[in-house]
Design goal:
The protein is mainly α and about 150 residues long. It contains eight helices and no strands. Helix 1 packs across helix 2, helix 1 runs parallel beside helix 3 and helix 2 crosses helix 3.
């Protein structure tokens, strides 16, 4: 096994996530290669540092960072969207309500029924026009008598 192959397998070696045969080959190479041992020691130091890191940021960390950056005050990220709740949402609600009301209104005239035709006042000219349409004889007689 070459040094490069061993270096690529060292993370898995540290986790003992290799077959026993490969583990023995890597150990044999580590015994003769100073570069591989140096890489292994480097990876072990990283493991110790990661294990020793605190679970959460120490108190005052962000204030110290901000002070070092020279920023007086940290802007709250959601502060810039404050207008949405104060202005936009009421306007949006009003628009939805208006669309709901206007959506129920139709611009079409209501459909006329046969009864509407029969109750209408027809002059003779309109009755003559109706006789040319495809209406039943009874309806035409009623219309002509009006």
């Amino acid at each position: 096994m070459t040094d490069m192959e061993v270096k690529n397998l060292l993370p898995a070696y540290l986790e003992a996530d290799l077959p026993a045969e490969q583990m023995r080959e890597i150990e044999a190479r580590l015994a003769v290669s100073a570069a591989c041992r140096e890489e292994l020691n480097y990876l072990r130091r990283i493991q110790r540092l990661v294990a020793a890191r605190p679970e959460s940021a120490p108190p005052g960390l962000w204030r110290g960072i901000i002070r070092r950056m020279g920023v007086d005050e940290v802007a709250e990220p959601w502060k810039q969207f404050e207008w949405v709740g104060k202005r936009f949402l009421p306007v949006l609600a009003a628009a939805v309500l208006l669309l709901a009301v206007l959506g129920n209104l139709t611009t079409e005239a209501p459909a006329l029924t046969l009864e509407d035709y029969l109750n209408a006042q027809w002059d003779e000219q309109e009755a003559e026009l109706l006789t040319d349409t495809e209406l039943s004889g009874d309806v035409l007689q009623i219309l002509q008598t009006r």
